[in-house]
């Protein structure tokens, strides 16, 4: 009898196992559909084919930004894909790059143009692709400020101070984003908090193009203060969740004890049945 | 006071005799095993679904504009709303697991055989009603998962020749899933199906009690499945009292099932609440991978295996009809699994096939 109960319990647990296999899933990135640009250039070699491979590793691809979003043209028509009539604008000259990227990254363009880097545009100063790459565009992060890249033009000393000020805030934002994603997975309403973090992250990213160390310090302090409020709210929710788990654990133990007692009672009856 | 009330009832309805006849006077086979307690586990789980369902109804709004928000409010703002909602969602999955185990144990022990044809048939319909409750309840939160899973599920009816398109429109109340679909699924989920379920559970229990509990087909006590020319309640002289002897075992199984339910509800509710269930329905954005719940994966994959949906539907219909009518098809008297090698082989292979097709459906 006890053997049968063991099998029954094991069976219940075993059948529960397919649950995560069948139901759980990770958030898939938004992959752009196969356009005629990719079909044609994907098969080419050298200078004309290389951008496709580079773009495939980029943050643009992860976010669903494809060739035509930057270069224009018609991604559905082989014949007219590169026609100016369909808005094709090709590749920009170096000095035109900030305006080219700034069509989407408006705030960043303004910050860049106001900075020392931006004021040196056309005079040997860097523009967007100098640091971010062109087709293999990487996600904006303090890692882009590094000894190897910055020392191509100047010493790393000031850049290192700016990077130190940015890294801490970047870590806080990344941590909060992970926490909010975890809470969302549990069905907790995090839309408002996510909105606040998103706004602060944008505010923070605008500091990336400033080369004024004091301004960066002031900006990151203000951002960290606002993020602190979100972090307090997240900590409160996490504390509630821990309490829930504690009560859940107690309920499970009580149910198992009750089940065990019932089985002991059954065994007592079983012994009596034997005597009878 | 209580004794006086019982005395009053006893004089008029003979409740003491009725209680005695159905508890300590009701003898069940001495070698009865834990698998026989799954019916009681199901009763407890269905009871909990009714209770949590009624509590959810207080705050749920069956309107396409408000349904998702109302569920979010239940989970985030209503005191213990998260617990009620998660118990309801996880409980529905656990019910399907226990329903399957109950049916598999009945099949293995040959308890579906005569004279218990009606017990099996009513149980089989109850299983389908349970799946119907899962399907209709799935749409109510009006999430991306709800919307697209219902779109795919109702779309399958379109394969029926001639009336297919009309049937799809009838199920949805409109050419596509929308407010009329939510309205009719809501009515089905909270009134029609629970009502039918309660009535049929009553009939199922009546059949169980009237026929008497079957003896497990193991050891020297095994009996063949026979029916005479007149009604004969299967008695078990020398058996054990249903109450309190066997109910103690049933209570243990209910506690263990509830422990599993609480464990998943408190520690891993996301197992049964995928990411797409946390996004409001958007008819203009199709999620990348729409998969039905795990218990419908076999049906989903069957439709894909066959060259046409109609053949797939016909195969499903044939299988379900075969299972429903099994006691009328399998008329042999033998119930001992060891003496039924053909049945046991088909049973194991069928089960493996079902699991295999489900896994295939998940990854296809």
From TrEMBL, chain B:
Entry GO CC: membrane
GO biological process, one term: respiratory electron transport chain
Residue ranges of the TM segments: 34-61, 87-108, 120-140, 185-208, 251-273, 310-329, 341-361
Main subcellular location of this protein, as a coarse class: membrane
Membrane topology qualifier: Multi-pass membrane protein
Domain Cytochrome b/b6 C-terminal region profile: 232-364
Alphabetic keyword roster: Electron transport, Heme, Iron, Membrane, Metal-binding, Respiratory chain, Transmembrane, Transmembrane helix, Transport
Domain named Cytochrome b/b6 N-terminal region profile: residues: 5-217
SUPFAM superfamilies in the record: a domain/subunit of cytochrome bc1 complex (Ubiquinol-cytochrome c reductase), Transmembrane di-heme cytochromes
Gene Ontology molecular-function annotations: electron transfer activity; metal ion binding; oxidoreductase activity
Subcellular location: Membrane
Any Pfam family the entry gives: Cytochrom_B_C
Protein name per its UniProtKB record: Cytochrome B6
């Amino acid at each position: 009898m006890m053997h049968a109960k063991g099998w029954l319990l094991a069976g219940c647990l075993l059948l529960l196992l397919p649950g995560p296999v069948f139901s759980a899933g990770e958030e898939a990135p938004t992959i752009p559909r196969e356009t005629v640009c990719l079909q044609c250039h994907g098969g080419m070699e050298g200078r004309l084919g290389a951008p496709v491979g580079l773009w495939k590793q980029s943050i643009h691809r992860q976010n669903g930004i494809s060739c035509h979003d930057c270069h224009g043209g018609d991604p559905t028509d082989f014949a007219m894909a590169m026609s100016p009539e369909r808005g094709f604008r090709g590749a920009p000259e170096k000095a035109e790059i900030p305006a080219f990227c700034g069509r989407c990254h408006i705030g960043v363009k303004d910050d860049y143009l106001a900075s020392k880097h931006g004021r040196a545009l056309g005079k040997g100063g860097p523009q967007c692709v100098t640091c971010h790459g062109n087709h293999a565009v990487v996600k904006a992060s303090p890692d882009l400020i590094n000894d190897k890249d910055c020392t191509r033009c100047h010493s790393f000393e000031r850049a290192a101070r700016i990077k130190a000020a940015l890294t801490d805030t970047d870590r806080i934002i990344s941590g909060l984003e992970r926490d909010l994603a975890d809470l969302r997975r549990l069905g907790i309403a995090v839309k408002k908090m996510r909105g606040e973090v998103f706004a602060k992250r944008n505010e923070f990213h605008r500091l990336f193009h400033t080369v004024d160390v004091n301004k960066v310090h002031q900006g990151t302090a203000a951002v960290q203060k606002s993020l602190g409020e979100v972090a307090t709210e997240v900590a409160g929710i996490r504390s509630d969740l821990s309490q829930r788990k504690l009560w859940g654990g107690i309920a499970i133990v009580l149910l198992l004890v009750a089940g065990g007692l019932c089985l002991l009672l059954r065994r007592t009856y079983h012994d009596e049945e034997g005597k009878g | 006071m209580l004794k006086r009330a019982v005395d009053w009832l006893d004089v008029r309805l003979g409740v003491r005799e009725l209680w005695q006849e159905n508890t300590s006077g009701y003898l069940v086979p001495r070698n009865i095993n834990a698998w026989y307690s799954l019916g009681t586990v199901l009763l407890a789980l269905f009871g909990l679904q009714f209770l949590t369902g009624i509590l959810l109804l207080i705050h749920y709004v069956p309107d396409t504009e408000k349904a998702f928000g109302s569920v979010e409010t239940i989970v985030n703002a209503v005191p213990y709303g998260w617990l009620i909602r998660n118990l309801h969602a996880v409980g529905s999955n656990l019910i399907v697991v226990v329903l399957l185990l109950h049916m598999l144990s009945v099949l293995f022990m040959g308890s579906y055989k005569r004279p218990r044809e009606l017990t099996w048939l009513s149980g089989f319909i109850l299983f389908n009603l349970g799946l119907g409750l899962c399907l209709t309840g799935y749409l109510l939160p009006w999430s991306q998962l709800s919307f697209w899973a219902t779109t795919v599920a109702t779309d399958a009816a379109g394969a029926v020749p001639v009336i297919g398109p009309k049937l799809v429109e009838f199920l949805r109340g409109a050419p596509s899933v929308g407010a009329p679909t939510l309205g009719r699924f809501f009515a089905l989920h909270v009134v029609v199906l629970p009502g039918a379920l309660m009535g049929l559970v009553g009939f199922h229990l009546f059949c169980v009690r009237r026929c008497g509990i079957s003896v497990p087909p193991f050891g020297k006590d095994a009996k063949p499945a026979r029916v005479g020319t007149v009604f004969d309640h299967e008695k078990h002289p020398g058996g054990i009292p249903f109450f309190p002897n066997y109910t103690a075992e049933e209570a243990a199984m209910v506690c263990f099932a509830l422990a599993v339910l609480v464990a998943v509800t408190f520690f891993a509710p996301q197992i049964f609440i995928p990411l797409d269930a946390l996004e409001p329905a958007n008819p203009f954005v199709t999620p990348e991978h729409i998969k039905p719940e795990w218990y419908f994966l076999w049906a989903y994959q069957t439709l894909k295996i066959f060259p046409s949906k109609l053949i797939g539907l016909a195969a499903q219909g044939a299988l379900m009809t075969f299972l429903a009518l099994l006691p009328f098809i399998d008329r042999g008297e033998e119930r001992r699994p060891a003496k039924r090698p053909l049945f046991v082989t088909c049973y194991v292979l069928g089960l493996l096939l079902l699991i295999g097709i489900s896994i295939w459906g998940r990854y296809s």
